[in-house]
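Aim 2, interim progress. The first record below pairs a target sequence with its structure tokens.
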Amino acid sequence: MSNYSKFLGAAALTLLSTMAAAEYPEREVSGVIQWGAGGATDVAVRGMVSYAEEALGKKIVLQNKPGGVGVIGANFVQQQASDGYTFLAGAENPALYKVMSLADFDYKAFYPINVISRANVLVVANKDKPWTNFKELLADVQAHPGAVKMYTAGTGSVPFTTSAMITSLTKFPVTPVPFDGDGPGITAMLGGHVDFGFIAAGAVQEHIKAGRLKVLGVLDAKPYNGAPPMTEALPGLEKYVPWGSFFGIFVKNDVPDDAKMKLAAAFKKAVDNPTYKEMMEGRGNVMLNLSGDEARKFIDRWQSVTAWVYQDAGVAKVSPAELGIPKP
């Protein structure tokens, strides 16, 4: 084959490649939700997928692949072709996979198409308890070690992480009572079997509105819906906040840039939809709508804060320092 023929062949391949990239997406796109149907991530993603379809111009088919703290769904996406036709609809957990020895990858193996929102974490109590804010609760806990019962959902959960943050700064001698998730924990709180808990706002909004539970504070440096910031009682918490579980859309790092840009543009428009924003904010979320470098910066900070809280609490399986995760 002559050099000229080789040149023509290479030029043709380049042209075909360029045309293929420009035509993305040519078919439907698959989204893998790493948690079960009806969960917070499932609701967050299904609530805006129709808006993303409209912006993308193709159908998006969602499937739930729960299990292994989300590892099964995340690993499935990692095994798919790097063509932009499969994305992960995930929460915060993959950021800690290496720290907790759950998988040999974390969110650094993914490109963040969109970090949708962050949940407000509230400290809520049984309505009959005497406390009116977190400062009063903290004082009571310290004055009566072991007497106050706290709902928890085990290592890695929102209540575990929040209490670990507090314990890193001051004495917090509560009696943790474990439950399998917010649902049973809230039921126990309503029945007076536990006294308080740290829970994402969306899970308790209706109980608060109905007066069945009361809010003592928010894990932030500013108020939320009248709830005082927990930093007022414990100023050292400021180095950790804002903090809360988050939702996002991710693809493999080596997906072509054209596909990444088109997905990012579609999901940015979807997350910005007024109806969707109203729904998410009504569930206690702070809308972020971050992509690319901004999203990466947010995830890296969340990972840094949480990984080192776990290290200090003695539950990290691998030191964040060994993984190159800087201290916050």
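The second target in this work package is listed in the same format:
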Amino acid sequence: MRILFVHTIGKNKFGGGERWLVNAAAGLRDRGHDVIVGGKPGSVLLEAAGQRRLATAGFNILSDLSIYHIFKIARFIKKNKIDIVVSRDRDLSVTGPAARIAGGVPVVVRYGSPLRSSFRKHSFLLRRFASGIITNTLSIKEHMEKGGIVPHGFVSVVYNGLTPPADDGVYDFSQRFPGKVVVVTAGRLTADKGYLHLVDAVAMLRGRYDGLVLVALGEGKHRKRIERYAREKGVGDIVHLEGYTDDVMPFFRGCDIFVLASLYEGMPNAAMEAMACGKPVVLTDVNGARELVPDGDKGLLIPARDVQAIAGALERLIGDGLLRERMGKAAADFVWSEFRYDRMIDELVGFLQGKLDERLI
């Protein structure tokens, strides 16, 4: 297959969806398919794709309905003899018509985040231009189908796949925080990640337990707000915002507990990676988290926005080293069994080939 990914997110944005795209594109390329990654010129996404030796193309789509880019992408599809397009949801208003003009090339849309109220506005585009949808959680698939947004069978769940990490060491937190239990979280520093609730929980625990440190990996527009809030709550000295890092795995290997207090998620990649490192996790019970932690043996699920629940789950793990060890092992065994990279690529190839075969019948 000749496959074009189109994902025109902001130039400096690179999160779980973009990481998935680069990994998926590289996996398809390694299976012998010709793959091109299209995104904004000069974007971090295209830079990451280039580092994986993937072919790239610049599409600077500036509006939801750009006639210029519809015809530009249509010409690109024809010139490069593209068989199938994998599109970001918000690019479908351009990629869908472009693929139609280019001869009815199938377009598959990927949704890696929970549906928002604006999703229904895209339902017309999906019915008109999409051949199918890929998502990474059963909860998103069920939401789409139960709501009548798309017909049954239109959505396929392809779980994110773990790639065996390079043995790039363990971050030694004991040098900075001797004798402390280190809790790590990761994600953009924005309100939807629940950082303020997490700070409240840490403040609550400080009065009961002095040996706690919270380290946050990530960057975002609410950094100063979170720092200020931590100071106001009296925990500015034990809440450490490390900023963005290209490689989170050494931090996950070196910590004691991983926590994610998100208000919504798709499939939380950071939690999956922490579990792969053998760490116990505390996750808010939103969207794909229950598929990642199906029972209390592999992690602790708590309600979103519930500061008492966050504090209680952390305290339970802080006070029981054997539980942390046992839960971490169960978590690692589970994710390496169920969320393998080769399985993700197998399922992705099968879905894309199936949509291409439907067109050729």
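The first strand starts at residue 2 and ends at 6. This observation will shape the mutagenesis plan for the next reporting period.
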